[in-house]
UniProtKB/TrEMBL annotation, chain A:
Family, as annotated: Belongs to the binding-protein-dependent transport system permease family.
Keywords tagged on the record: Cell membrane, Membrane, Transmembrane, Transmembrane helix, Transport
Keyword presence, Nuclease: no
Domain ABC transmembrane type-1: 74-265
Pfam families recorded: BPD_transp_1
Protein name: Raffinose/stachyose/melibiose transport system permease protein
UniProtKB/TrEMBL annotation, chain B:
Lineage: Bacteria, Pseudomonadati, Pseudomonadota, Alphaproteobacteria, Hyphomicrobiales
Organism: Xaviernesmea oryzae
GO CC list: ATP-binding cassette (ABC) transporter complex, substrate-binding subunit-containing; maltose transport complex
Entry membrane topology: Peripheral membrane protein
Domain of life (superkingdom): Bacteria
Keywords for the protein's UniProt record, in alphabetical order: ATP-binding, Cell inner membrane, Cell membrane, Membrane, Nucleotide-binding, Sugar transport, Transport
UniProt record similarity statement: Belongs to the ABC transporter superfamily.
Name recorded for this polypeptide: Multiple sugar transport system ATP-binding protein
Amino acid sequence: MSKARSAPLRTALIHLALIAYTLVALFPVFLTLVNSFKSRNAIFREPMALPTPSTFSLVGYETVLNQGDFVGYFQNSLIVTVASIALVLLTGAMAAFALSEYRFRGNTLMGLYLALGIMIPIRLGTVAILQGMVAAGLVNTLTSLILVYTAQGLPLAIFILSEFMRTVSDDLKNAGRIDGLSEYAIFFRLVLPLVRPAMATVAVFTMIPIWNDLWFPLILAPGEDTKTVTLGVQMFIGQFVTNWNAVLSALSLAILPVMVLYVIFSRQLIRGITSGAVK
Amino acid sequence: MGSLQLKSIRKAFGTHEVLKGIDLDVKDGEFVIFVGPSGCGKSTLLRVIAGLEDATSGSIRIDGQEVAAVPPAKRGIAMVFQSYALYPHLTVKDNMGLGLKQAGTEKAEIDRRVAKASSMLALDPYLARRPAELSGGQRQRVAIGRAIVREPKLFLFDEPLSNLDAALRVQTRLEIAGLHRRLKATMIYVTHDQVEAMTLADKIVVLNAGAIEQIGSPMDLYNKPANIFVAGFIGSPQMNFIPAGKLGDTEAKTIGIRPEHIALSRESGDWKGKVIHVEHLGADTIVYLETEATGLLTVRLFGEHAYKPDDVVFATPDKASQHRFDTGDRAIA
């Protein structure tokens, strides 16, 4: 910010607010991470304290890695999340392109219908979805989860992407048509690279709820082979005894992959923004 | 090669009719300019010719061949857009060569044509750059180069100079004129700027509200406008329109006199008036005056003149150069 447009007090207050928010947002993550490295007694005695040599313990991580197939759960979570994001981005972008680019009867109606999903939570249809999956023989498969999450992510994806695609210059698409590019080539080679920031936004918004979801894995794929991380953690939470070391360790580990995905997408996001700015 | 015939082209979006029956003949090698106010349908007409929009009815023939069912890439046209519309992820060379590559042209032939176009447009030093690394004028030259490389029957220009600054606009205008002389290609050019139209065109098509008002050479339109719309649109500053009754002409409804066809004097003349405002442009002086006989009058004088607001002056029109219009706003021959 330039000197002429900033007052020191104002800047200080803004930073204070931002720092406060950052602390609030990071606190649960901090608490989880710190306590995952402590012994069980230390967790209950002083939950806020950092691990010291006397309280440091890796028992949680040992339990997680020895009990149950956590590597498998991670793999399941990753497969479901990545496949769902890929499907949401591909089909969502194609639908958005059709809605924003072509004039056809019922275009507006179709757009509204697809946006309806933003307002109506997909969980309302759980019973019907379960019946459908049973009938299709997809219960206890990762496919069932991928299908449901794709449906869950599409409305917002189409809504955001079609708004962005309206901003892509018509001249550019027409130049492609005159140069003999097919509509698919125009979509993949001209339009998609220009809406990459929007794609990254959609990917992040789609990813987090899928990774954290407990509901659909519990109902559609509770089998040992198809358990996701969030479902796997549940086995350490008992009615009478909860293995907090293991729960916290598993959650700490669960942060990692999602963080890696987030970093990848947010770099795309920033690159998209800056490439637009210096155009 | 490169003629174009349009027969009763109509285009409607829903119930809104944008083109109301356009008939036009463009001969091989002609430079034709569509000019008109915004919303007159000139860009839509160009898009219909390019095949980017379908006409609701009517026939389009390029070189005598009906092209209504032919996709844009196969019509033998090339188009230059107002916003350049370069592919951001391709280098200048690939931008120019993409159309040929899509058509399956051999690489050596593509290289030869790109080299020819780039030397014609002085783009050789920039061939490896991407559009983001070029200035506005260079980008527009690349866009023109992309059109040249296709060696089309028909060049279509959609307001290609609107995004350039004034100095660059004049320079690029000269380049386009030179290009037309060298390539002897048929060019169709859309603009709302009558100066571009007057300076570049062999033939100007004046459009208004989806219909053709007049077709003619620039000097035809200037000297013999067919109606009030064309008379007012061509020429700057705009022609003065005076109700004929005020001048004692009972046959016509409106008399039109161009600002450059009025003489001013401090001593004597036909119409006495008072100066309201003066614009000194160096080569020209534009004087706005209010006269009892005609109301507001614009006068264009050549050279510098020392008129000031509130000066009393006399204006005398050149009777031989006045235009008379009937009650239907058509010119009386």
